[in-house]
Amino acid sequence: xxxxxxxxxxxxxxxxxxxxxxxxxxxxxxxxxxxxxxxxxxxxxxxxxxxxxxxxxxxxxxxxxxxxxxxxxxxxxxxxxxxxxxxxxxxxxxxxxxxxxxxxxxxxxxxxxxxxxxxxxxxxxxxxxxxxxxxxxxxxxxxxxxxxxxxxxxxxxxxxxxxxxxxxxxxxxxxxxxxxxxxxxxxxxxxxxxxxxxxxxxxxxxxxxxxxxxxxxxxxxxxxxxxxxxxxxxxxxxxxxxxxxxxxxxxxxxxxxxxxxxxxxxxxxxxxxxxxxxxxxxxxxxxxxxxxxxxxxxxxxxxxxxxxxxxxxxxxxxxxxxxxxxxxxxxxxxxxxxxxxxxxxxxxxxxxxxxxxxxxxxxxxxxxxxxxxxxxxxxxxxxxxxxxxxxxxxxxxxxxxxxxxxxxxxxxxxxxxxxxxxxxxxxxxxxxxxxxxxxxxxxxxxxxxxxxxxxxxxxxxxxxxxxxxxxxxxxxxxxxxxxxxxxxxxxxxxxxxxxxxxxxxxxxxxxxxxxxxxxxxxxxxxxxxxxxxxxxxxxxxxxxxxxxxxxxxxxxxxxxxxxxxxxxxxxxxxxxxxxxxxxxxxxxxxxxxxxxxxxxxxxxxxxxxxxxxxxxxxxxxxxxxxxxxxxxxxxxxxxxxxxxxxxxxxxxxxxxxxxxxxxxxxxxxxxxxxxxxxxx
Length: 680
Hints:
Blueprint: H1 7-20, H2 25-41, H3 46-62, H4 67-79, H5 83-95, H6 101-113, H7 117-130, H8 135-148, H9 155-170, H10 176-192, H11 195-205, H12 212-226, H13 229-242, H14 247-260, H15 264-277, H16 282-294, H17 298-311, H18 316-328, H19 332-346, H20 366-384, H21 388-395, H22 402-429, H23 431-434, H24 437-445, H25 452-457, H26 463-474, H27 480-508, H28 511-523, H29 526-538, H30 542-554, H31 558-565, H32 567-571, E1 578-580, E2 601-603, E3 610-612, H33 613-621, H34 623-626, E4 648-651, E5 654-657, H35 658-678
Antiparallel strand pairs: 1-2, 2-3, 4-5
Helix pairs in contact: 1-2, 2-3, 2-4, 3-4, 4-5, 4-6, 5-6, 6-7, 7-8, 8-9, 9-10, 9-35, 10-11, 10-12, 11-12, 12-13, 13-14, 14-15, 14-16, 15-16, 16-17, 17-18, 18-20, 19-20, 21-22, 24-27, 26-27, 27-29, 28-29, 29-30, 30-31, 33-35
């Protein structure tokens, strides 16, 4: 979009030429572009922008039809924080039919001045499409996306910001501007957990002014995330030695590192220093409370944590620590009163608003924070109160909010299920004597509370167990025929028991359970092998799902396979589809294209639905027209509804979730980022 190489030399050369021919508008336009580039991307300052405007005015005086001068002038005015004259320049250029990448970049700057992040992103995207081989629009868009991205926020924003930062670096900025891009990309790598890439990027900045101080701080963050707390303390102290910026934040992080290193006294000292600088620093107060707990100074810790909660009621870890301390002291009375108080106050809380803190541990929505506290209290009561079910039941009538009432009722059901677990666990320890279809159904219902090892133990039922059960459960047989009939009945009960346990293992979605199901699918007889295959299908094995559907179809019961494979998506967490490339056996449900005709497809966990990348891109472009407000509509790829995802679209009759669109759109971008960071 603009010149960048040897700018000082270019400006000097053009200045000499303009001195010889002051009325040449082309020379003035060229110098205006050079001084604009120096001011915008190379820290030239306001003096360069004023020189740009002077050249633009003279150029327009000499050639009033120069649309390029209007655009360059609009950029300079926007950078000088003069939005109204900037808009007049840009609108005049736009009205004359120009649609250049620089024009849209300037409109993006205007949108940023008006705090319109969406508008800025839209214009920078248009600029990128107009100049895909120029690094400036990628850098502007990446920076805008990076400022909108937050740790723990929407992953798609972080992915897009990383992609455009990588493209900007690949396309050629050098020197200080490249270092600025590396710094932003390093921050994004920290957000996304790419710690090796973050270390490599910040290590490149460790010897570059003025990035050295920031690089050491972020290397400390990376080391702390890795659990290398001694190294993190070293980097943080080096940062403090060179900079007065964010002292309280750095001291709080040093304190957290000392706490992880089991040095509570040092942690307390660092927190005290941080609080002396910033008395409202939440992180320092939280670490101070934790350090006091580690030192056994519980009364002081409770006081600090209460003060923290008065300052930030949404600080979930502080409340959880208070509840933990009360639970250890078996203070069921305090927990019951706290639960009743939290439920009773819920209806009076605003639905939105509350804390403006950006601290990651603070929940800003008052009702969301209260829900989390209620869950924490119920968890504590379940360990201390023998009548916890009655306690929670009595709280349901303290609120009229149907959502909270339902949450409390769910907690009651969960507590009741946990009370049944010991009995089921005992049944699993002696499967030869206790097997039955009814007991298997109960184990399946309680699967999330029972470890894989216990469920695997329950699978052991042998012929001797069947003979013993035939006698113990039915009494002595009159003859061999009757005994065989009773053994046959018990064999069916045992097979039902084992099949249900295999499904219970699948319900837990663990790696060890997956391995066990694979072994049973290969080694067991046809009936139990089919049960294991069904479990694998529920876990997302497309080959197993195909075999289950084929088996059901052979018996004329394909609808049963649909019912068996669907509940997991309806009742559990939405599944993540698989990205598949060059598979001609897949056909797009919406347009009919085969896998080899498109860059990739998304395939559902069950394997029966696939949607191509081209259709998912069309959904993204038409999302406002395709969005549905029906909460019963579920994504054909993930099983997600509006209760699970921020949006669901219906394209060519196929429901598609926002998460599926993001996953497809980000596939090529993630591959570009992966290639770049792997080469660092």
